[in-house]
Amino acid sequence: MKKTLCYLLTGVMAAGLLAGCGQKTQTGTENTQPKDTAAGQTEASAQTEEPSQEEASGQQEPGGAVTLTAWHDNDEAMMNALADVVNEALAGDNITLKFEKKSDVSSQIRLYGTDAENGPDMYLFAHDSLGSFAEMGILEPVGNLISAEKEADLIPMTIEAATYKGEQYLMPVYYETVLFMYNKALWEGEVPSTTEELYDYMEAHTDTAAGTYALVNQHSNTYNVAPFINGFGGYVIDKDGNPGLNAQETKDAITYNKKFAMLQADGDYNTVTALFNEGKAAAIIGGPWLVSGIKEAGIDLGIKALTDFTLPDGNPMIPYSGVQCIGVLKYAAENKKEAVEKVLEVLAGTEAGVTLAKGFNCAPANSRAYDDPDVASNEMILAMKKSAEKAVPMPNIPEMSVMWGPAESLLAAVNKSGEDVDTAAEKYQKEALTAIQDMK
User: Fold this and answer.
1) Of 39, 182, 403, 432, which sits most exposed with the smallest number of CB within 10 A?
2) What's the CATH architecture for 179-318+397-439?
3) pTM (2 d.p.)
Protein backbone atom coordinates (compact mmCIF):
# COMPACT_ATOMS: atom_id res chain seq x y z
CA MET A 1 0.00 0.00 0.00
CA LYS A 2 1.49 3.31 -0.84
CA LYS A 3 0.31 4.91 2.12
CA THR A 4 0.37 4.32 5.53
CA LEU A 5 -2.54 5.84 8.92
CA CYS A 6 -5.09 9.52 8.24
CA TYR A 7 -5.92 13.22 7.78
CA LEU A 8 -8.31 15.60 9.43
CA LEU A 9 -10.12 18.81 10.00
CA THR A 10 -9.34 20.33 13.33
CA GLY A 11 -12.82 21.13 14.59
CA VAL A 12 -14.53 19.18 17.31
CA MET A 13 -16.82 16.37 16.16
CA ALA A 14 -20.01 15.57 18.01
CA ALA A 15 -21.94 12.63 16.63
CA GLY A 16 -21.23 13.25 12.96
CA LEU A 17 -18.17 12.82 10.81
CA LEU A 18 -16.13 15.99 10.66
CA ALA A 19 -12.59 14.87 10.16
CA GLY A 20 -10.24 12.04 9.38
CA CYS A 21 -7.81 10.95 12.07
CA GLY A 22 -4.28 12.32 12.16
CA GLN A 23 -2.66 11.00 9.03
CA LYS A 24 -2.40 7.90 7.01
CA THR A 25 -0.48 5.02 8.51
CA GLN A 26 3.09 5.00 7.28
CA THR A 27 4.32 2.04 5.27
CA GLY A 28 7.13 1.22 2.94
CA THR A 29 5.05 2.48 0.01
CA GLU A 30 3.57 5.58 1.49
CA ASN A 31 4.17 7.93 -1.45
CA THR A 32 1.02 7.21 -3.44
CA GLN A 33 -1.18 9.38 -1.28
CA PRO A 34 -0.61 13.05 -0.58
CA LYS A 35 -0.19 14.27 2.97
CA ASP A 36 -2.58 16.92 4.19
CA THR A 37 -1.25 19.26 6.81
CA ALA A 38 -3.17 21.35 9.29
CA ALA A 39 -2.22 24.71 10.67
CA GLY A 40 -0.86 24.39 14.13
CA GLN A 41 2.21 25.09 16.13
CA THR A 42 4.47 22.69 17.99
CA GLU A 43 7.32 23.61 20.23
CA ALA A 44 10.61 22.15 19.11
CA SER A 45 12.83 20.63 21.72
CA ALA A 46 16.06 21.21 19.82
CA GLN A 47 16.70 24.87 20.61
CA THR A 48 19.90 26.81 20.20
CA GLU A 49 20.16 27.85 23.83
CA GLU A 50 22.51 26.04 26.18
CA PRO A 51 20.99 22.94 27.77
CA SER A 52 20.39 22.90 31.49
CA GLN A 53 22.62 20.83 33.71
CA GLU A 54 19.85 18.24 34.00
CA GLU A 55 19.42 18.06 30.22
CA ALA A 56 23.17 17.89 29.65
CA SER A 57 23.56 14.96 32.01
CA GLY A 58 20.42 13.24 30.69
CA GLN A 59 19.50 12.29 34.25
CA GLN A 60 16.12 12.88 35.83
CA GLU A 61 16.49 14.81 39.07
CA PRO A 62 14.25 13.50 41.88
CA GLY A 63 11.30 15.87 42.22
CA GLY A 64 12.63 18.11 39.45
CA ALA A 65 10.80 19.25 36.34
CA VAL A 66 11.10 16.85 33.42
CA THR A 67 10.29 17.47 29.77
CA LEU A 68 9.84 14.59 27.35
CA THR A 69 10.02 15.19 23.63
CA ALA A 70 8.14 12.93 21.22
CA TRP A 71 8.62 13.07 17.45
CA HIS A 72 5.71 12.51 15.09
CA ASP A 73 4.60 13.11 11.50
CA ASN A 74 0.98 13.82 12.25
CA ASP A 75 -1.55 16.62 12.49
CA GLU A 76 -0.19 19.18 14.91
CA ALA A 77 -3.55 20.22 16.29
CA MET A 78 -4.23 16.61 17.25
CA MET A 79 -0.82 16.17 18.80
CA ASN A 80 -1.24 19.38 20.79
CA ALA A 81 -4.60 18.14 22.08
CA LEU A 82 -3.03 14.85 23.10
CA ALA A 83 -0.17 16.65 24.83
CA ASP A 84 -2.71 18.79 26.71
CA VAL A 85 -4.34 15.65 28.12
CA VAL A 86 -0.99 14.40 29.37
CA ASN A 87 0.26 17.73 30.68
CA GLU A 88 -2.93 18.49 32.59
CA ALA A 89 -2.87 15.05 34.18
CA LEU A 90 0.79 15.33 35.16
CA ALA A 91 1.00 19.00 36.09
CA GLY A 92 1.41 18.08 39.75
CA ASP A 93 4.33 15.82 38.87
CA ASN A 94 6.23 18.56 36.99
CA ILE A 95 6.22 16.42 33.85
CA THR A 96 5.70 17.98 30.41
CA LEU A 97 5.25 16.19 27.10
CA LYS A 98 6.08 18.08 23.92
CA PHE A 99 5.34 16.71 20.47
CA GLU A 100 7.70 17.81 17.71
CA LYS A 101 6.79 17.29 14.05
CA LYS A 102 9.38 15.69 11.77
CA SER A 103 9.22 14.69 8.14
CA ASP A 104 10.15 11.07 7.41
CA VAL A 105 10.05 10.04 11.05
CA SER A 106 11.33 6.50 10.44
CA SER A 107 14.53 7.77 8.82
CA GLN A 108 14.96 10.35 11.55
CA ILE A 109 14.62 7.69 14.25
CA ARG A 110 17.16 5.48 12.50
CA LEU A 111 19.56 8.42 12.37
CA TYR A 112 19.06 9.76 15.90
CA GLY A 113 17.77 6.74 17.81
CA THR A 114 20.96 6.42 19.84
CA ASP A 115 21.69 10.15 20.06
CA ALA A 116 20.68 11.31 23.54
CA GLU A 117 21.48 14.93 22.75
CA ASN A 118 19.71 15.34 19.40
CA GLY A 119 17.18 12.52 19.34
CA PRO A 120 13.74 12.35 20.95
CA ASP A 121 12.74 10.58 24.13
CA MET A 122 9.76 8.99 22.45
CA TYR A 123 7.98 8.92 19.09
CA LEU A 124 4.46 8.33 17.78
CA PHE A 125 4.41 6.43 14.51
CA ALA A 126 2.88 3.46 12.70
CA HIS A 127 3.66 0.01 14.09
CA ASP A 128 4.98 -1.52 10.86
CA SER A 129 8.38 0.11 11.43
CA LEU A 130 8.79 -1.78 14.72
CA GLY A 131 10.86 -4.72 13.51
CA SER A 132 13.58 -2.55 12.03
CA PHE A 133 13.84 -0.41 15.16
CA ALA A 134 13.82 -3.43 17.47
CA GLU A 135 16.61 -5.08 15.52
CA MET A 136 18.64 -1.89 15.87
CA GLY A 137 18.37 -2.23 19.64
CA ILE A 138 17.24 1.36 20.17
CA LEU A 139 13.84 0.70 21.78
CA GLU A 140 12.95 -0.08 25.38
CA PRO A 141 10.14 -2.66 25.59
CA VAL A 142 7.12 -0.90 27.07
CA GLY A 143 6.49 -3.97 29.18
CA ASN A 144 9.35 -2.66 31.31
CA LEU A 145 7.62 0.70 31.67
CA ILE A 146 3.89 0.09 32.01
CA SER A 147 2.09 -2.73 33.80
CA ALA A 148 -0.29 -5.16 32.13
CA GLU A 149 -2.99 -3.79 34.44
CA LYS A 150 -2.60 -0.31 32.95
CA GLU A 151 -2.91 -1.79 29.45
CA ALA A 152 -5.81 -4.09 30.25
CA ASP A 153 -8.31 -1.95 28.31
CA LEU A 154 -6.29 -1.85 25.09
CA ILE A 155 -7.83 -3.72 22.14
CA PRO A 156 -5.97 -7.04 21.62
CA MET A 157 -5.30 -6.41 17.93
CA THR A 158 -3.38 -3.23 18.83
CA ILE A 159 -1.23 -5.10 21.34
CA GLU A 160 -0.47 -7.70 18.67
CA ALA A 161 0.64 -4.93 16.32
CA ALA A 162 2.94 -3.51 19.00
CA THR A 163 4.63 -6.86 19.65
CA TYR A 164 7.72 -8.19 17.90
CA LYS A 165 9.26 -11.61 18.54
CA GLY A 166 7.14 -12.07 21.63
CA GLU A 167 8.09 -8.72 23.19
CA GLN A 168 5.78 -5.72 23.37
CA TYR A 169 7.94 -2.79 22.36
CA LEU A 170 5.27 -0.18 21.64
CA MET A 171 2.24 1.29 23.40
CA PRO A 172 -0.82 1.53 21.08
CA VAL A 173 -2.68 4.85 20.92
CA TYR A 174 -5.09 4.59 17.96
CA TYR A 175 -5.58 2.57 14.78
CA GLU A 176 -7.21 2.63 11.36
CA THR A 177 -8.44 0.30 8.63
CA VAL A 178 -9.86 0.70 5.15
CA LEU A 179 -13.66 0.79 4.97
CA PHE A 180 -16.49 0.69 2.48
CA MET A 181 -17.44 4.38 2.15
CA TYR A 182 -20.44 5.41 0.08
CA ASN A 183 -22.35 8.46 -1.07
CA LYS A 184 -25.83 8.12 0.41
CA ALA A 185 -27.29 10.29 -2.36
CA LEU A 186 -25.93 8.02 -5.10
CA TRP A 187 -26.09 4.53 -3.65
CA GLU A 188 -29.39 2.81 -4.45
CA GLY A 189 -30.95 0.62 -1.80
CA GLU A 190 -29.16 -1.27 0.95
CA VAL A 191 -25.43 -1.95 0.81
CA PRO A 192 -24.97 -5.69 0.07
CA SER A 193 -23.67 -8.13 2.66
CA THR A 194 -21.72 -10.39 0.26
CA THR A 195 -19.03 -9.57 -2.28
CA GLU A 196 -20.94 -11.42 -4.98
CA GLU A 197 -23.98 -9.19 -4.41
CA LEU A 198 -21.64 -6.20 -4.46
CA TYR A 199 -20.25 -7.35 -7.81
CA ASP A 200 -23.75 -7.73 -9.23
CA TYR A 201 -24.54 -4.18 -8.11
CA MET A 202 -21.35 -2.95 -9.78
CA GLU A 203 -22.25 -4.63 -13.06
CA ALA A 204 -25.67 -2.99 -13.03
CA HIS A 205 -24.48 0.49 -12.02
CA THR A 206 -21.13 0.95 -13.77
CA ASP A 207 -20.62 2.62 -17.14
CA THR A 208 -16.87 2.68 -17.79
CA ALA A 209 -17.37 4.37 -21.16
CA ALA A 210 -19.17 7.26 -19.47
CA GLY A 211 -16.67 7.32 -16.60
CA THR A 212 -19.22 6.56 -13.87
CA TYR A 213 -18.72 3.79 -11.35
CA ALA A 214 -20.54 1.99 -8.57
CA LEU A 215 -17.31 1.37 -6.63
CA VAL A 216 -13.74 2.53 -7.04
CA ASN A 217 -10.68 1.17 -5.28
CA GLN A 218 -6.93 1.25 -5.63
CA HIS A 219 -7.23 -2.18 -7.16
CA SER A 220 -3.50 -2.71 -7.64
CA ASN A 221 -2.45 -1.36 -4.24
CA THR A 222 -1.47 -4.06 -1.77
CA TYR A 223 -3.03 -2.37 1.26
CA ASN A 224 -6.35 -1.93 -0.54
CA VAL A 225 -6.38 -5.47 -1.93
CA ALA A 226 -5.32 -7.01 1.40
CA PRO A 227 -8.98 -7.49 2.48
CA PHE A 228 -9.33 -9.99 -0.39
CA ILE A 229 -5.93 -11.63 0.16
CA ASN A 230 -6.33 -12.03 3.92
CA GLY A 231 -9.96 -13.10 3.53
CA PHE A 232 -8.98 -15.89 1.13
CA GLY A 233 -6.34 -17.11 3.57
CA GLY A 234 -3.47 -15.76 1.50
CA TYR A 235 -0.63 -13.57 2.70
CA VAL A 236 1.93 -11.12 1.43
CA ILE A 237 4.54 -12.33 3.92
CA ASP A 238 4.30 -14.59 6.97
CA LYS A 239 5.59 -13.93 10.49
CA ASP A 240 8.83 -15.74 9.68
CA GLY A 241 9.60 -13.50 6.71
CA ASN A 242 8.54 -15.90 3.95
CA PRO A 243 6.80 -14.22 0.98
CA GLY A 244 3.44 -15.67 -0.04
CA LEU A 245 2.89 -14.13 -3.46
CA ASN A 246 2.77 -17.55 -5.14
CA ALA A 247 0.65 -19.22 -2.45
CA GLN A 248 -2.50 -20.65 -4.02
CA GLU A 249 -4.75 -18.70 -1.64
CA THR A 250 -3.01 -15.45 -2.58
CA LYS A 251 -3.37 -16.19 -6.29
CA ASP A 252 -7.03 -17.07 -5.83
CA ALA A 253 -7.62 -13.75 -4.09
CA ILE A 254 -5.82 -11.80 -6.80
CA THR A 255 -7.85 -13.56 -9.48
CA TYR A 256 -11.07 -12.76 -7.63
CA ASN A 257 -10.05 -9.12 -7.14
CA LYS A 258 -9.39 -8.81 -10.87
CA LYS A 259 -13.06 -9.09 -11.80
CA PHE A 260 -13.80 -6.13 -9.53
CA ALA A 261 -10.83 -4.23 -10.98
CA MET A 262 -12.30 -4.60 -14.47
CA LEU A 263 -15.32 -2.56 -13.32
CA GLN A 264 -13.22 0.13 -11.66
CA ALA A 265 -11.12 3.05 -12.83
CA ASP A 266 -7.35 2.82 -13.32
CA GLY A 267 -6.88 2.56 -9.59
CA ASP A 268 -4.36 5.19 -8.52
CA TYR A 269 -5.08 7.23 -5.41
CA ASN A 270 -5.72 10.58 -7.07
CA THR A 271 -8.01 9.12 -9.72
CA VAL A 272 -10.29 7.14 -7.41
CA THR A 273 -10.44 9.91 -4.82
CA ALA A 274 -11.40 12.50 -7.43
CA LEU A 275 -14.06 10.22 -8.93
CA PHE A 276 -15.71 9.75 -5.55
CA ASN A 277 -15.47 13.38 -4.45
CA GLU A 278 -16.83 14.57 -7.81
CA GLY A 279 -19.86 12.27 -7.60
CA LYS A 280 -18.76 9.99 -10.43
CA ALA A 281 -18.45 6.98 -8.14
CA ALA A 282 -21.07 5.94 -5.62
CA ALA A 283 -18.61 4.22 -3.28
CA ILE A 284 -14.92 3.93 -2.54
CA ILE A 285 -12.71 1.66 -0.47
CA GLY A 286 -10.62 3.96 1.67
CA GLY A 287 -10.02 5.18 5.18
CA PRO A 288 -10.44 8.13 7.51
CA TRP A 289 -7.69 10.05 5.71
CA LEU A 290 -10.28 10.67 2.93
CA VAL A 291 -12.88 12.31 5.14
CA SER A 292 -11.60 15.88 4.95
CA GLY A 293 -11.94 15.98 1.14
CA ILE A 294 -15.27 14.15 1.26
CA LYS A 295 -16.74 16.68 3.66
CA GLU A 296 -15.41 19.56 1.57
CA ALA A 297 -17.23 18.04 -1.41
CA GLY A 298 -20.49 18.11 0.56
CA ILE A 299 -21.06 14.37 0.36
CA ASP A 300 -23.46 12.69 2.78
CA LEU A 301 -21.15 9.85 3.76
CA GLY A 302 -22.17 6.34 4.72
CA ILE A 303 -19.81 3.76 6.23
CA LYS A 304 -19.72 -0.03 6.32
CA ALA A 305 -16.97 -2.25 7.74
CA LEU A 306 -15.35 -4.45 5.10
CA THR A 307 -15.54 -7.30 7.58
CA ASP A 308 -19.33 -7.13 7.09
CA PHE A 309 -18.88 -8.42 3.51
CA THR A 310 -18.79 -12.20 3.08
CA LEU A 311 -16.54 -13.73 0.40
CA PRO A 312 -17.63 -16.74 -1.71
CA ASP A 313 -15.82 -19.13 0.65
CA GLY A 314 -17.93 -17.88 3.55
CA ASN A 315 -15.12 -15.92 5.19
CA PRO A 316 -15.27 -12.14 5.70
CA MET A 317 -13.05 -9.66 4.00
CA ILE A 318 -10.14 -9.01 6.37
CA PRO A 319 -8.32 -5.68 5.99
CA TYR A 320 -4.92 -4.74 7.30
CA SER A 321 -4.85 -2.41 10.28
CA GLY A 322 -2.27 0.27 10.93
CA VAL A 323 -1.73 1.12 14.59
CA GLN A 324 -0.19 4.38 15.71
CA CYS A 325 1.96 3.65 18.74
CA ILE A 326 4.35 5.30 21.17
CA GLY A 327 7.91 4.01 21.11
CA VAL A 328 10.42 4.82 23.85
CA LEU A 329 14.13 5.20 23.13
CA LYS A 330 16.43 3.31 25.46
CA TYR A 331 18.32 6.32 26.79
CA ALA A 332 15.03 8.00 27.78
CA ALA A 333 13.88 4.87 29.57
CA GLU A 334 17.17 4.70 31.44
CA ASN A 335 17.39 8.38 32.41
CA LYS A 336 13.78 9.54 32.64
CA LYS A 337 12.05 6.31 33.52
CA GLU A 338 9.58 7.64 36.08
CA ALA A 339 8.39 10.41 33.78
CA VAL A 340 8.10 8.02 30.83
CA GLU A 341 6.05 5.59 32.91
CA LYS A 342 3.58 8.28 33.94
CA VAL A 343 3.19 9.59 30.37
CA LEU A 344 2.53 6.10 29.03
CA GLU A 345 -0.14 5.52 31.66
CA VAL A 346 -1.99 8.66 30.62
CA LEU A 347 -1.72 7.88 26.90
CA ALA A 348 -3.08 4.37 27.54
CA GLY A 349 -6.04 5.79 29.42
CA THR A 350 -9.62 6.53 28.50
CA GLU A 351 -9.34 10.32 28.39
CA ALA A 352 -6.65 10.27 25.71
CA GLY A 353 -8.75 7.92 23.59
CA VAL A 354 -11.92 9.98 23.96
CA THR A 355 -10.03 13.17 23.04
CA LEU A 356 -8.71 11.61 19.83
CA ALA A 357 -12.11 10.17 18.91
CA LYS A 358 -14.29 13.19 19.64
CA GLY A 359 -11.95 15.82 18.29
CA PHE A 360 -10.21 14.01 15.44
CA ASN A 361 -12.23 10.96 14.39
CA CYS A 362 -9.58 8.47 15.53
CA ALA A 363 -10.38 4.92 16.60
CA PRO A 364 -8.85 4.68 20.09
CA ALA A 365 -6.80 1.70 21.17
CA ASN A 366 -8.47 1.98 24.59
CA SER A 367 -11.71 -0.03 24.49
CA ARG A 368 -13.33 1.93 27.36
CA ALA A 369 -13.22 5.10 25.26
CA TYR A 370 -16.10 3.64 23.23
CA ASP A 371 -18.35 3.93 26.27
CA ASP A 372 -18.47 7.69 25.74
CA PRO A 373 -21.82 8.57 24.07
CA ASP A 374 -20.26 10.73 21.36
CA VAL A 375 -17.70 8.07 20.49
CA ALA A 376 -20.37 5.36 20.54
CA SER A 377 -22.43 7.28 17.98
CA ASN A 378 -19.60 7.82 15.49
CA GLU A 379 -20.32 5.61 12.48
CA MET A 380 -16.77 5.56 11.15
CA ILE A 381 -15.10 4.85 14.47
CA LEU A 382 -17.53 2.03 15.23
CA ALA A 383 -16.90 0.51 11.79
CA MET A 384 -13.16 0.51 12.46
CA LYS A 385 -13.73 -1.00 15.89
CA LYS A 386 -15.79 -3.75 14.29
CA SER A 387 -13.04 -4.27 11.73
CA ALA A 388 -10.46 -4.47 14.54
CA GLU A 389 -12.07 -7.69 15.76
CA LYS A 390 -10.87 -9.47 12.60
CA ALA A 391 -8.33 -7.13 11.00
CA VAL A 392 -4.74 -8.26 10.54
CA PRO A 393 -2.08 -5.81 11.75
CA MET A 394 0.31 -4.91 8.97
CA PRO A 395 3.39 -7.12 9.32
CA ASN A 396 5.97 -5.35 11.48
CA ILE A 397 8.95 -7.49 10.49
CA PRO A 398 11.83 -5.75 8.64
CA GLU A 399 11.30 -7.90 5.54
CA MET A 400 7.89 -6.32 4.92
CA SER A 401 9.61 -3.11 3.85
CA VAL A 402 10.74 -4.74 0.60
CA MET A 403 7.47 -6.57 -0.08
CA TRP A 404 5.29 -3.67 -1.19
CA GLY A 405 7.11 -3.33 -4.52
CA PRO A 406 6.90 -6.96 -5.70
CA ALA A 407 3.33 -7.34 -4.41
CA GLU A 408 2.08 -4.28 -6.25
CA SER A 409 3.99 -5.21 -9.38
CA LEU A 410 2.15 -8.53 -9.29
CA LEU A 411 -1.23 -6.83 -8.91
CA ALA A 412 -0.47 -4.39 -11.73
CA ALA A 413 0.72 -7.19 -14.00
CA VAL A 414 -2.54 -9.08 -13.54
CA ASN A 415 -5.01 -6.19 -13.41
CA LYS A 416 -3.46 -3.75 -15.87
CA SER A 417 -1.35 -5.87 -18.24
CA GLY A 418 -3.49 -8.99 -18.28
CA GLU A 419 -0.63 -11.32 -17.38
CA ASP A 420 -1.30 -14.87 -16.26
CA VAL A 421 -1.64 -15.02 -12.48
CA ASP A 422 0.49 -18.15 -12.03
CA THR A 423 3.32 -16.88 -14.21
CA ALA A 424 3.33 -13.41 -12.70
CA ALA A 425 3.16 -14.78 -9.15
CA GLU A 426 6.26 -16.93 -9.68
CA LYS A 427 8.12 -14.00 -11.18
CA TYR A 428 7.43 -11.60 -8.35
CA GLN A 429 7.84 -14.26 -5.66
CA LYS A 430 11.41 -14.68 -6.90
CA GLU A 431 11.86 -10.91 -6.93
CA ALA A 432 10.65 -10.73 -3.32
CA LEU A 433 12.98 -13.53 -2.22
CA THR A 434 15.93 -11.75 -3.83
CA ALA A 435 15.03 -8.45 -2.15
CA ILE A 436 14.83 -10.16 1.23
CA GLN A 437 18.13 -11.93 0.69
CA ASP A 438 19.76 -8.63 -0.24
CA MET A 439 18.75 -7.26 3.17
CA LYS A 440 20.96 -9.79 4.93
Assistant:
1) 39
2) 3-Layer(aba) Sandwich (3.40)
3) 0.86
